[in-house]
Design a protein that fits this description.
Order of helices and strands: HH
Family: Belongs to the EARLY FLOWERING 4 family.
Pfam families: Elf4
Protein name: Protein EARLY FLOWERING 4 domain-containing protein
Radius of gyration: 26 Å
Shape: rod-shaped
Number of strands: 0
Subcellular location: Nucleus
Distance between the termini: 96 Å
Keywords: Biological rhythms, Nucleus
Length: about 150
């Protein structure tokens, strides 16, 4: 068994960054001209809510998978009881803590984006319903209500 648990090559995960853009994920807010994960329907961006949610949950999944690798390395370092491994665990636990805080933050942003989209949909539906009250929903035929034998 390697002293670093074989996962020493695990690079720190930049939680909350849009894929390759280096920009933080903010659901429901535009992310510049790139139209990244944060471009929600309420922000006038091109991304629809399902795309924003899918992208956000994909990022969360990536962070959680990275956390799994960190936890495995921490466990292996603990079993090896080497001073270098135990010292490295302090840094790994700090990274794990940071990643967990970022996941919580991302879930908050996703929840907010969903709530804003639902509110916008309700407002749009109410406005459409108010506009429809001016006339009948379907035209009536000329013979409606008259008796023909």
């Amino acid at each position: 068994m390697e002293e670093d648990g074989g996962a020493g090559s695990v690079e720190p995960f930049v939680a909350g960054a849009c894929a390759g853009s280096g920009e933080p994920f903010v659901a429901g807010a535009g992310s510049g001209s790139k139209g990244g994960a944060g471009a929600g329907s309420s922000a006038g961006g091109g991304a629809k809510l399902p795309e924003v949610l899918q992208r956000g949950f994909g990022e969360v999944k990536g962070i959680l998978e990275h956390n799994r690798a960190l936890i495995q390395e921490i466990g292996q370092n603990e079993e090896a009881r080497g001073p270098d491994g135990l010292t490295r665990n302090a840094a790994l636990i700090g990274e794990l803590n940071t990643n967990i805080a970022r996941v919580v933050d991302m879930y908050g942003h996703l929840s907010g984006a969903f709530a804003r989209a639902v509110a916008a949909k309700k407002a749009a539906d109410a406005a459409a319903a108010a506009g429809d009250k001016g006339g009948p929903k379907r035209p009536r035929s000329a013979g409606a209500g008259s008796s023909s034998q």
